[in-house]
Design brief:
This protein is α+β, with helices and mostly antiparallel strands. It has helices spanning about 15-25, 35-40, 75-80, 85-90, 90-95, 105-110, 110-115, 125-130, 150, 225-230, 240-250, 250-255, 265-280, and strands spanning about 5-10, 25-30, 50, 60-65, 70, 135-140, 140-145, 150-155, 155-160, 165-170, 180-185, 195-205, 205-215, 225. A hairpin with a 6-residue loop joins strand 13 (about 205-215) and strand 14 (about 225). Helix 10 runs antiparallel to helix 11 (about 240-250). Bound molecules: flavin-adenine dinucleotide.
Length: about 280
C-alpha cells in the first residue's frame, strides 16, 4: 500500500518547525521515518503534513557536558552504537543499542524518534528511565526539561504536545561502583522485545548499595521494579539465594500486559529469569 497524500515541509530552524506544527491540527514530525513511514504506508497514520526536521542544525551531536552526556534527537541508533563517548558516558545505552532493530533501521532511526514514539517494547524508553535521564523539549512556549520517568504517560503516549519537538536527551555521569545491566528476550535478534530489562546496581565490596531496575514490554510504558530493587539493597552480590528471593518480589512489581508474543504468566516468568541472569553475571 501507499501512504495517503500529505504536505511535506523541510524547515531550517526549530522556530519554523514549531510554527509549521502549530499551523495544522494534524502535522507530525518526521525524523528517521523508520516507524512513521511504514505506519503511513499501511494507512495506520494519515497526517496532513510532515515536518521533516533533518535540516535543523544542532540536533545531531553527541556532546560531553559537565553533568554527563547530551545526545541530540537526530542521532541515529547506528551513530550511538559507533560512539566511544556513549560507551564511556552512557554505558547502559551502549549496552542496549545492538538490540534495537536491524542494521538498516539503525542507520536511519533516531533516538528522538524512538523516545517520541514510546513503543512499550522498545529499548530506549526503559534505558532513559533506568538512567534517570532528562528529556529536552522545544515547543511554542520555549524550552522545557523533564525527567524521563515523568515523560512516558502510557501506551505510545508521552508528555509531548502536538507542536513540541524532542530536541535532546541528557545522561548523567555513571556513579562510582555503578555497573549496568541489560537483558532482553526476543523471538529473533532485532525484533522488538518479548520482555526486557535495563538497570544498574551500585556494589560496594560485595554488598549491593542500591539498585534501579526497569522492565519493558510488560506494560504500556517502562515499569520500575521498586520492591525487588529495595529487597536487593544490602544483599551480597554473591549470595544467590537472597538474590533469588528478591527477584520473587517481581510478583508485586509487575502485572504484565499480554500481547501477541506472550501471555501474562510467560512474561512474568521471563522477567524473573532475565533479572536472575543479570544479577548472577555480577556475582
Ligand atoms: C522492522 C522494524 C523493527 C524495529 N525494531 C525495533 C526494536 O527492536 N527496538 C526499537 O526500539 N525500535 C525498533 N524499531 C523502530 C526504530 O527504532 C525506529 O527508528 C524508531 O522507533 C523511530 O525512530 P525514527 O527516527 O525512525 O522516527 P520516525 O519514524 O520518523 O517517527 C516516529 C514517531 O515519533 C515522532 N517523532 C520523531 N522524532 C521526533 C522528535 N524529535 N520530536 C517529536 N516527535 C518526534 C514522529 O512524529 C512519529 O510519530 C523497528 C522498526 C522497524 C521498521
Amino acid at each position: 500500500m501507499k501512504a495517503a497524500g500529505f504536505q511535506y515541509e523541510r524547515p531550517n530552524t526549530l522556530t519554523q518547525a514549531i510554527q509549521l506544527l502549530s499551523s495544522s491540527p494534524d502535522a507530525r514530525v518526521l525524523a528517521g521515518g523508520q516507524s512513521l513511514l511504514p505506519a503511513m504506508n499501511m494507512r495506520l497514520a494519515t497526517p496532513e503534513m510532515l515536518v521533516d526536521i533533518q535540516d535543523i542544525p544542532g540536533l545531531r551531536s553527541i556532546e560531553e557536558t559537565e553533568k554527563g552526556l547530551r545526545i541530540g534527537a537526530l542521532v541515529t541508533h547506528g551513530e550511538i552504537q559507533a560512539s566511544d563517548l556513549v560507551k564511556r558516558k552512557a554505558p547502559l545505552l551502549a549496552r542496549a543499542v545492538p538490540y534495537v532493530a536491524h542494521v538498516g533501521i539503525r542507520n536511519r532511526g533516531t533516538i528522538g524518534g524512538s523516545l517520541s514514539l514510546a513503543d512499550p517494547a522498545a529499548e530506549y524508553p526503559a534505558v532513559v528511565v533506568a538512567s534517570d535521564a532528562v528529556i529536552e523539549i522545544q515547543g511554542p512556549e520555549g524550552l522545557r526539561k523533564i525527567n524521563a520517568s515523568s515523560f512516558f504517560k502510557g501506551l505510545y503516549t508521552t508528555d509531548l504536545e502536538a507542536s513540541d519537538i524532542l530536541t535532546a536527551v541528557e545522561f548523567q555521569q555513571p556513579r562510582p561502583n555503578e555497573t549496568f545491566i541489560f537483558e532482553e528476550f526476543a523471538r529473533r535478534k532485532g525484533d522488538y522485545a518479548t520482555v526486557g530489562l535495563a538497570g544498574s546496581v551500585v556494589v560496594s565490596g560485595t554488598t549491593i548499595e542500591s539498585a534501579r531496575i526497569v522492565f519493558f514490554a510488560v506494560g504500556s510504558q517502562p515499569v520500575l521494579a521498586e520492591q525487588a530493587a529495595k529487597a536487593l539493597t544490602g544483599c551480597d552480590i554473591a549470595d544467590k539465594s537472597s538474590l533469588e528471593k528478591a527477584v520473587q518480589l517481581l510478583d508485586g512489581d509487575l502485572d504484565p500486559m499480554p500481547d501477541l508474543q506472550a501471555n501474562r504468566h510467560t512474561k512474568l516468568h521471563l522477567a524473573k529469569t532475565l533479572l536472575v541472569r543479570a544479577l548472577f553475571k555480577q556475582g
